[in-house]
Write a structure and sequence with these properties.
The complex is a heterodimer. By secondary structure, chain A is of the alpha+beta class. Chain A is built from 17 helices and 19 strands. In chain A, helix 7 runs antiparallel to helix 17 and helix 10 crosses helix 16. Chain B has a 3-stranded antiparallel sheet, with helices on one face. By secondary structure, chain B is mainly α. The chains are: A alpha+beta, B mainly alpha.
Chain lengths: ~475, ~450
């Protein structure tokens, strides 16, 4: 008697069981890391009972976070730099944030030699978790921290070709060493919201830094003749009853595209904005990751951009100079700048460089990773040419005549209802011919970009090139 | 020892599982005997070590008493089965005991009260398991009374639909004289009986070709549709799905028509789409499956907790008492697999998948050896029922498929589940015993002939 129908059933179920088993094995081996790292996973405290949390190091080898004993012999997490690294390093006492959060599983997994691990487990001693080495530079971090002064805001320093974060400061801050004790006070402070990492989570109107996008779109739509653009600025532009004025009532007169960008002429850029192909601009914003996932391990907010073929003239005018409903995070702005510096290729923002076991033997190196090409190399070159001019004759001319050169864009982003109040922005990179670092600074209510953000950025570049 | 217990337990379970498959390299039962005894030793080691770890970490002495009682119970089952039914499959009996042992450990860790109740239920289960094969050979004419099974099943289902209590949005429990139980578990047995009876009724078959009358096929299909429909109305999706799949596979076995399979899966696809469009709770389950983390406080909570448990436990687990399985809702029932994976390790959990597969393969192996088409069809129904239930529950917990909310046979806590799986197990064993003893003369004959062939 043939039993092929029975065998068919056997094979169907065999396939189901085996694929379920394979899926299970795959998820435990490969996708579990991300799952376990989820901030909602309360089981990390179970791991902490079995593993001593590993250490986080800065690029110069100094400790950013480690387990230590307090005066009573209690184990505590110690952050030697205190508030300076508060946001980017994060904390692990009240949930985990920053790098503490991004590398939670690694810090709580021990890759000590097997024999040693088993020995310790047998006698019931906890093993020590793996260590994390970061690209963060305390020297630059301190300068960033000082440059922001008493302003609320953020500063980011990123390696231009690798996307590695060298410094990331957010203010106001808090002391991660005592965040648990002061939790109620810190978390209730809604006026300052010190727990928010403004560098990655702060959503700001981009102001004139958005002209990078507008300029890019114009160059993209006019690849050969954008240099022939001219405009006569009378200090204001009116269309469909909506008027946009140049900053502080300036009148820029006759200007070409280069002057318009360098002097950050609102009237000229509104004029450009009105000529653009809006659906295409929308695609560009998408490509520049507005409203999209950003390539970072840190917790961040998605930037916002809304313009479509049905948008009215007023919205288009405001959007093209970075006002309106567009919102961007400093990290996003730094990533766009980094992509321009890096020939159009956006790199993944990385702060973790390698992972070792507690004794120092290498487990994993995190190589710089290309994330997405947002423009062609030629376009990036052209953008760099325009951004260089800003820092020679334009709003960033404080960078002219230094031992290093800078390409960038300033911004004065109006916010709230009161006219004249603005956040001070600068984003740019040094040594445009062979870019070194990207610096992005925002100072809340800091006036125009050239007033506060440019000097702050200059202090950071100075520190990097050792010309302080 | 306790510190390294998770590794020992994993090694014991892995060795055990290896034996499940390695045993087939020996054809003779006598050669296999040593394997089976080795399996029993590994089972005892796992069970006793698990309980010892629990005892040493909680200081609760009564756990060791429970451990001893459970050992006695498992021994009674193993030894009496060997004595009463030497023809029964020892591998299946061993597997049942192993799965029960692992379940016992996990339940003792989760809740002492539930562990004790599970033990008492298992005592009843063992009694049933010992009795059923004895009776099965004496009630052979039940096959002609399938209408009785259909009506009994319908009465119970309708009672559930109208009087059942709602748990987690599904109407699945019924209380009789203060005892709550899951009627669909019991009805599934009746369901398999009646399908087997209807599809093999000699009066409804063409005497020459053996084909089943169309009218009979239609009435069988209609009855099955009614059953599945009622379950869907009770929002008991897992059961509805199992009933449907069992029917498709049994019909396929009876008719041997590949078209049945194609139509069955097509129907499954269409009804899934319809269910998704019609019912909000189906959409919720699918959403929670695709991305449990997007609604982690709501629909995705259970699966997310389960994935946290499995992921954090990793291959060797956090050790018994080392994790927080209590944070998973329904952990002792539908999610016991996740709890095992969390504390005893993913390797042990993987072995549970393989041991269940071994059970399914043995069930199918037995089905194939049965020549009576009614009994064979019933065996196939029981095998598919078991196999599919395992896939639904483990698949749901591991995010392989959307969650349906169903128990893991022999491992999960729950009276109805344990009793019904014991009945299924003993039915299969009973059918096997019946087949082997009735035809002993014949198969001995075959053996003789084969051996003489080999000599020659």
């Amino acid at each position: 008697m043939r039993k092929h129908e029975m065998w068919t059933i056997v094979y169907i179920f065999l396939a189901l069981f085996l694929s379920m088993g394979a899926y299970f094995v795959y998820s435990v081996q490969f996708s579990a890391r991300e799952v376990v790292n989820d901030s909602h996973n309360t089981r990390k405290k179970d791991l902490e009972k079995q593993v001593i949390r590993g250490t986080i190091y800065a690029a110069d080898g100094s400790v950013l976070a480690m387990e230590a004993l307090d005066d009573d012999g209690q184990e505590v997490r110690n952050y030697p730099y205190g508030e300076i690294f508060a946001h980017v390093v994060g904390f692990s006492t009240m949930g985990s944030t920053g790098i503490e959060g991004a590398a939670d599983v690694d810090l709580l997994t021990s890759n000590a030699p097997v024999s040693e691990k088993l020995q310790k487990e047998m006698v019931g001693i906890r093993n020590t978790g793996d260590n994390i080495y970061t690209s963060l530079r305390p020297d630059l971090q301190k300068v960033c921290y000082a440059s922001l002064g008493d302003y609320k805001g953020a500063a980011i320093v990123m390696e231009a070709k690798t996307g590695r974060i060298l410094a990331m400061v957010s203010k106001p801050d808090f002391d991660p060493n005592t965040v648990a004790e002061n939790w109620d006070k810190i978390s209730a402070d809604e006026e300052n919201s010190p727990l928010v990492n403004r560098a990655t989570q702060g959503l700001y109107p981009p102001g004139s830094t958005f002209k990078i996008m507008t300029l890019y779109e114009y160059i993209k739509e006019h690849p050969d003749d954008h240099d022939k653009y001219t405009y006569d600025c009378t200090g204001r532009i009116t269309a469909d009853g909506e008027t946009i004025e140049c900053f502080h009532g300036s009148v820029h007169g006759h200007e070409d595209l280069m002057d318009s960008f360098a002097d950050s002429c609102n009237s000229s850029f509104t004029n450009i904005g009105l000529s653009l192909d809006i659906p295409d601009l929308s695609d560009t914003a998408d490509r520049f990751l507005f409203g999209r996932v950003l390539p970072t391990d840190l917790k961040y907010s998605r930037s916002k951009f809304s313009l479509s073929s049905i948008s009215d003239t007023k919205t288009i005018m405001q959007t093209s100079i970075g006002q309106g409903s567009t919102l961007v995070t400093p990290l996003h702005m730094a990533l766009i700048t980094e992509a321009i510096a890096n020939g159009g290729m956006m790199m993944r923002a990385q702060e973790i460089v390698k992972k070792t076991n507690y004794a120092g033997s290498l487990l994993k190196e995190y190589k710089p990773e290309e994330y997405k090409r947002i423009m062609t190399e030629q376009e990036a070159e052209e953008m760099t040419r325009y951004m260089k001019q800003v820092c020679i004759t334009g709003t960033g001319k404080k960078f002219a005549g230094l031992s290093y050169s800078v390409a960038g864009k300033t911004g004065s982003a109006e916010f709230g209802k009161i006219k004249g109040q603005s956040h001070s922005w600068f984003t740019g990179f040094s040594n445009p011919d062979d870019p070194d670092i990207v610096v992005t600074v925002i100072m809340e209510n800091g006036g125009s970009g050239s007033e506060n953000a440019v000097p702050a950025a200059k202090r950071i570049f100075d520190a990097f090139y050792g010309t302080m | 020892m306790v510190g390294l217990s998770r590794y020992f337990i994993a090694v014991f379970v892995i060795f055990y599982t290896f034996q499940c498959f390695a045993v087939f390299s020996y054809r003779d039962d006598e050669d296999r005997g040593i394997f089976y005894i080795f399996q029993n030793v590994l089972m005892i080691l796992t069970h006793v070590l698990g309980f010892y770890v629990l005892y040493s970490r909680t200081g609760n002495r009564s756990l060791m008493v429970l451990c001893l009682l459970e050992e006695v119970l498992l021994f009674i089952l193993l030894i009496l089965y060997g004595l009463l039914y030497p023809a029964a499959s020892r591998l299946i009996t061993n597997n049942v005991c192993m799965l029960l042992s692992i379940g016992f450990i996990m339940l003792a860790r989760l809740s002492e009260e539930r562990a004790l109740r599970q033990f008492i239920i298992a005592v009843f289960g063992v009694v049933l398991a010992l009795a059923v094969p004895y009776f099965i050979s004496r009630i052979r004419y039940i096959r002609y009374y399938y209408w009785g099974a259909i009506i009994a099943g319908l009465v119970v289902l309708l009672a559930m639909l109208t009087k059942g209590a709602v748990t987690n949005g599904s109407r699945i429990t019924l209380s009789i004289a203060g005892v709550a139980f899951l009627p669909s578990e019991f009805v599934r047995l009746l369901y398999i009986f009646f399908i087997a009876g209807m599809l093999t009724d000699e009066e409804r078959r063409d005497p020459v070709t053996g084909r089943i009358e169309h009218q009979q096929l239609i009435s069988c299909t209609v009855m099955c549709a009614v059953y599945v429909g009622i379950l869907a109305l009770c929002k008991d999706l897992g059961s509805a799905l199992i009933f449907f799949v069992v029917y498709v596979f049994m019909l396929y076995t009876a008719t041997r028509a590949p078209a049945v399979m194609i139509a069955g899966f097509g129907g499954m696809f269409l009804s899934s789409v319809a269910g998704y469009k019609l019912f909000a709770h189906v959409r919720n389950r699918v959403r929670a499956w695709r991305d449990p983390f997007s609604d982690i406080e709501g629909a995705g909570y259970q699966v997310a907790q389960s994935l946290f448990a499995i992921g954090t436990g990793s291959w060797f687990g956090l050790g018994l008492m080392g994790g927080s399985p209590g944070s998973i809702p329904e952990v002792a029932k539908d999610f016991i697999f996740a709890a095992i994976s969390e504390e005893m390790g993913a390797l042990t959990a993987l072995c549970i998948i393989l041991i269940s597969l071994s059970n399914f393969l043995m069930f199918m192996n037995i089905s194939m050896s049965i020549r009576d088409i009614y009994l064979r069809l019933m065996a196939v129904g029981l095998a598919v029922n078991y196999g599919f239930q395992v896939i639904l529950t483990i698949g749901g917990v591991t995010k392989f498929i959307p969650l349906t909310g169903i128990t893991l046979p022999f491992v999960s806590y729950g009276g109805s589940s344990v009793i019904v799986t014991f009945i299924c197990f003993s039915l299969i064993q009973g059918l096997y015993v019946l087949e082997r003893t009735e035809d002993r003369g014949f198969s001995d004959d075959m053996d003789m002939r084969r051996r003489s062939h080999e000599k020659a």
